# Entry
Amino acid sequence: MVHAYILIQTEVGKAAAVAQQIGKVPGVTTAEDVTG
# Structure
């Protein structure tokens, strides 16, 4: 099994929506947004 962390820069306020869409990609088991 492959584990990976990716950094995606989004517009302000869009991180949660982007993480939700990434979670729908086949093979992705977890997608979370982190800010700060």
Q: What stands out?
A: The first helix runs from residue 15 to 22. The CA atoms of residues 3 and 28 lie 10 Å apart.
